[in-house]
Each structure stands twice: as structure tokens, then as C-alpha cells.
Amino acid sequence: MDDIFLNCNEKMKELFTKYSSDAYMFQRFQYHILTILPSALENESKNHADRVTRNHFLLNEQQIFIQVFLSKHQYYYLPNNSCFYHYDGKNYSIITEDDIQHELLTTISKDKTLMQWKHKTKINIIKQIKDRNLFTSTPESETFQTVLNVLYPAFFSNKQEAKYFLTIIGDNMLKKNSDLIFLIKPKMKKLIGELENIAYYTLGLTNIANNFITKYHENYDYEKCRLLKINDTVSFDIWIDIIKKLGLNLFCVAAHYSNRYTNSDAFIINYGNEDLRNYTFYLKNNTKQDIIQHFCDYSIEQSNSKNLSMNWKNMHYLWKLFIANYSYPSMIYSNALKGLLSQKLLYNEELDSFPNITSKYLPLTSDFILFWENTITILGEGEGEEEFEVDEICSLFKKWKQTDSQTVTNTTINENDAVKLISHFFPHVEIVENKYFSNIRCSLWNKMLDIQQSLDTFKLTKDNLIKDLDTESSLVSFDDIYKFYCEYCSKNKTRIVSKQYFEKYVCTSLATHILFDKFISNDWFLN
What burial letters (b/e) apply to 133-149, b meaning 16+ CB within 10 Å? Predict the structure, then answer.
């Protein structure tokens, strides 16, 4: 302050000396110093105060505008893909910066106060939006429920399991617990892979599900393994439609759960029920010896009879039943499993069997194998094409047990167990989509013969049938002839094939008489 005063004083002295000898300029010097300068400084001071006041007012108005605008328009940003997002309280969507600026400028134009600061306000808001990371947003209750209702009960048996899955996805998005391994059923890998694709297109993220594994490897550390139970019967096409519609919602809910619960392990520990904890941490909390003990308790019964023994193939099948029953992955390799069982149980290496043990699950297995070996023929090339639905085989097995004296149990078999059993003991049998056994023939039911006999009978009764149908048509529909077949089988107390199988046979055997894909020509009856 003193320096400024001295500089001003020196300047005044300099000007005073300069103009003191010039009467006119000296008079002007006095006028400017005594009249103009005080007035100019007073006006400058007032204008400055007005500008400060207005600036403060506009700044306050701008802050209020920004606060209200960002509250009403929930925009977010991800720096990794330079993409903006909008949340309307129900759904998240991708939005362009141009669309945001258009909405912003349209809103500012309605506020005359900020028109002068329109550009400055726009820059400020865009900057603040870029500081709002999408993964820090908080979805509304409706969004949570929409996502959870999609996952439960279709993919998970309860909402806790669905939340756990979402928390895992959130952890992976936020790079948490990257050393954990989540074991899932093989069928789910394709679905999880599609989830990764959607994450890449919408979020610019890669490998958000690379720790979802379908097959256990012996190098995996049990301590790092987690089990994840997902229903694998849902159609892949349905899953794709769901993910495409709700992908962003799912990812944002997942990120929120990861932030809210810290991580997936913390969710299980603090919020999971006992069953979910025990299942998820099954490998983490058990050694291989513990698992073998669990298997033996579930599957094996000791016996004093020297005549009883269990061969390795049966033992291995029991192991598959055990892990299937609990939805466990195959977490012990076959050779390692045999080695561990050999240490725990008596083992005859020469016979490759375990003496003095049995299992309550083996009688049914033995019966089914006996049924299969006695009634089923595997068709070779050129022997025709024949197929049986899994439920048809189960039904035939039930019938066979009622008449065969060699059976040891009255228990029936379900479709899943039948597929597992055939896959294990008869791996060369072709199983289509776990629904059909292809290229086999069963001595208990000649499906083709039944159909052919019904067709022959149909030809003989054609005139009466046409009268019953009240039609003069020279064509007979597949529906009508299948209806006749069903009545024929009911009358003769024989089994009925599916409409699909029936039509397949008709199309093959009467190929030259088929019209419009679904009708039999009248010329067939003339042959």
C-alpha cells in the first residue's frame, strides 16, 4: 500500500512540475484532479459494486439452475467409453451429448435471467455430468424390482441368489475380487457370454464374466472357488431378449449392489441365509477329504457280506448322482476321485472294485441297465431311423418292471436320471437335447408298426371316415389321420406316439402322396 501511495505521489509531483509553467494545462490538471477523478472513481466504484452484486446473483441463479436441472435430468457419464447415459427413474439408456445440450439450451432459454450465461452454464453442467460416474447412480425401487423379477424365479430359486449374482457382476465391473472363480453349469456359459457382449456394447467393458467357469481345473485353489447355482433350463433366445431390453438396468443395479454390500463375499457373509452360504462356500470351507466323506455319507452303505462289492463304473456313476443332486460341479478329477476313495475304502485293484459296500441308489441303476440290455437294440447304419422320447423310455421301464421277475426294486426312474444313467453307462447312445434317444429300437414297443397298422386300417375305413367328417374333400389332413390313429391305439390298448413323430413317419412312408405339407392325397387310397 505504501509503495502505491509513493508511486502515485511521485506521479502527481511529476505532472505538477510538468504543467506548472503552462497556465492552461495547469488549470486542466487541477480540474481533472479535483473534479473529474473523484467523480470517475465514484462511478467506477459504484459500477464495480453493481457488477459484483449481479455476478453474485447470476452465480447463485446458475447454481440453483444446475442443481434443479441435474436433479430433474439424471445424466451420467463413463470415461472409459466417453459415453453419456440418462436415467428416467425406471430405465437407463444411452444418450448423446448433442441431445443433452439440446435439452439444456432449451431449458436455459426459458430462464431469461441466465441467457447471458448460457454458454458458461452449458459448459459447467457438461463438466459436472462428466464427474457423475454411471456406476455411482442409485436406481429407484421400480428398477430394482424389474431386474429382480426378471432373474427370479426364472434363473434363481430366490431373490437372495439373484442379488448375489448381481453383486458378482458388479464386482467384476468395478474390478473387485478379480481372483475369485465362480463355477457354473456348462449350459450357462453361452448366456454369460452374451451378457459380456451387451456389457461391451453398452458400457465399453470387457471380460466382466471371465471368472465364470464351467469346468473345474485341478490347479484351482478351493479357497478361491465359489459355487453359483443358476437354472439352466431357460431358453437362450428368451435370455437374449431380456438382456437386450434390460441390460443397462441390470448392470447399474449390479454396480449399486457391489457398492452397497462391499463385494459378493461380504454379501454372502452378512446377508445370505445358511443354505446359500453353505452352497456358495462349499469348496472354500471343505477339503477334498471332507467332500469324499460327504459323498460316502450320502451314497455308500457298509456291508458285512463278502458277496457284495461295487465296481468302479458304478461308484463313478454314484459320484455323478451325488454332485447332480446337490448341483455341485465336478470338482475332483476321475483319477483323483478313485485315489481318494481307495484311501478311504477297501479297494481291489485287480477287480477294480470296492468290496463290502453297497448303495441304496444301485438297485434302480441295476434294474434300468438290465431293462436296457434286454429290450433296447442300437441301430446301425442302414437299419433305419428310430427314436424314443426320454419319458417314453421311462414309461416302458415302468411297464417292464411290472412283468420282469429279475427286478429288485419297485422304484420308477425320472427323465433326468435316465439321461444321466445312459450317458454314463452307454455313452455311445445319441441323446438329442436331453429329450430323445436316437437310433434305438425297443422290443416292448414297435412304434412304426403301430402307425402302419393304423394307416392300413384307415384305408379300409376311409369311406366311413369321410362320412363322419362330413366332407367331400379328396384330401385327408394329418390332423384327421392322427386323430384316427389315437382312437385306434386307445381301442387296441397300445401306446400313442407324439404328433410330431407320427407326422414324421407319415411324411417318410407316404412321401409321394403328400400335398401342401399337411395333407394325404386321395390317390393313396387307390393303390
Answer: ebbebebeeebbebbbe
Q: Give the integer Cα–Cα distance in Å for 203 and 462.
A: 65
CB 305 within 8 A of CB 356: yes
For residue 205, the tally of other CB atoms under 10 A from its CB is: 19
Nearest of 162, 176, 165 to residue 259 by alpha carbon = 176
Coil, helix or strand at residue 466: helix
Grid cell at residue 213: 467357469
Residue 377 vs residues 422, 424, 437, 440, 445: alpha-carbon distances, Å: 13, 17, 12, 6, 12
CA distance 83 to 251: 15
- Whose cell is 445358511? That residue is 274
Q: Tell me if the pTM is above 0.85.
A: no
Q: Where are the domains of the chain?
A: 1-54, 73-136, 141-285, 288-354, 363-442, 447-524
Which stretches does DSSP call E strand in 14-152? 74-78, 83-87, 92-95
Mean pLDDT over the full length of the chain = 88
Per-residue pLDDT tens for 234-256?
A: 777 777 887 888 889 999 999 99
The DSSP result for 165-193, as a single string, is HHHHHHHHHTT-STT-EEE--TTHHHHHH
For residues 385 and 283, what is the distance between their CA atoms, to the nearest angstrom?
A: 45
Whole-angstrom distance, CA of residue 442 vs CA of residue 429: 14
Nearest Cα residue to 314 out of 272, 266, 268, 355: 355
Tell me the pairing of strands 212-213 and 181-183.
parallel
The set of cell numbers assigned to 44 is 467506477
257 residue type, one letter = Y
- Over the stretch 119-149, which tens digit does the pLDDT of each residue have? 888 888 899 999 999 999 999 999 999 999 9
